[in-house]
Amino acid sequence: MKNNYLHAGNTTKKSSARARPVFRAFGVVAAVTLAGVVLRVALAAGPDHLSVRSSKSEIVAENSDASNNGKNPIAEKYNTLVMRVYFRDRAERDRLAQELSAEEVPTTAGYLTVIGDRDLYYNLTARGLRVEIDENSSRNLSDPQIMRDTFYGGYKTVEEIYTFLDQKVAQFPNLVEKIDIGDSWCKMNPGSCVLPSPWNGYDLFVLHITNRSIPGPKPVFWADGGIHAREIATPEVVMRMIDYLLNNYDTNADVHWLVDHHDIWLMPEVNPDGHHIVEAGGGGNSPYYYRKNGDNIGGGVCSWPPTASNHFGIDNNRNFPFKWGCCGGSSGFVCDQTYRGTLAGSEP
């Protein structure tokens, strides 16, 4: 894996001190949020459904309209509901969380996030619990088009990731540009990638975010995701960061400053060939535990379908030139998940 990343120069202590807590805080929030299914679906909905600038979901309380025979019209409208189940104390929170298999998202606002059907909703309200419905998330989760465009309950395919990047460029042309930095292994070697079915690889895209009307030089920030194909949450985190920076530019002073005075490079998908293979598992319902890139080295020897520890390809994160093959952190056996390749920096 060639290290073509950009490096910061002349970064002032004052600038770094201000930027560091903002980026760190965002990273923590994104990681925690991604633990829940709710975010997977919200991200899958794309920019038409998810906007930080107008992110307040429409919430409908549990009180039913008598004219509807005790039925909540929102509960009747969607097959799958994202509910906020309020608790009175910590003991009730813990008991309800275990009973309802609540999502792993913060409870500091006094409620659990629960996904279920309308029968569960009516059961909970009949027990005297305060329950609210997040209509936006319920709509997204009940939308069959979203599930067709994504896999494994809401994760974006490579094509959906690249569509997202194009949408951001169109939406914020003065702040963002999409840069083609090269080709994936399968695109560099047309006709060589045939599993799970023939395809010809992908371009490698990164978004450059900055206010280009303000001259540099500026401190550089780089983040990427998906270097290991099966780590499918990481591209979603990077896309969430893209959304956060662009959608909050006009309303958040810290975000405005970051975008104005920094060169921010965000690459959601470093390894699109590998991601493409992961998507194919179980028709998208049981993703392959495929870790490496699309290099077909070992294709005639290694396991197919791939297992977690035996599959072809090269581990991009063990292919960097720096101390390549050093220190027992990689493998020289082609089917191992940490196979480093035959030459340092050989992979795109």
Describe the structure.
Residues 2-13 and 28-57 have low confidence and may be disordered. This protein folds into two domains: 13-45 and 148-318, Zn peptidases (Aminopeptidase, 3-Layer(aba) Sandwich); 59-142. It is α+β, with helices and mostly antiparallel strands. Helix 8 packs parallel to helix 10. The longest helix is centred in the N-terminal third of the chain and has 21 residues, at 13-33. The strands form three sheets. A four-stranded antiparallel sheet has the order 1-4-2-3, with helices on both faces. The chain is built from twelve helices and ten strands. The radius of gyration is 23 Å and the shape is globular. Helix content is 34%, strand content 14%.
Set out the fold topology.
Elements: H1 13-33, H2 37-44, E1 59-60, H3 73-77, E2 81-86, H4 90-100, E3 111-116, H5 118-126, E4 131-134, H6 135-142, H7 144-149, E5 150-151, E6 155-156, H8 158-171, E7 176-183, H9 185-188, E8 203-209, E9 220-224, H10 233-247, H11 253-261, E10 263-267, H12 272-279
Parallel strand pairs: 9-10
Antiparallel strand pairs: 1-4, 2-3, 2-4, 5-6, 7-8, 8-10
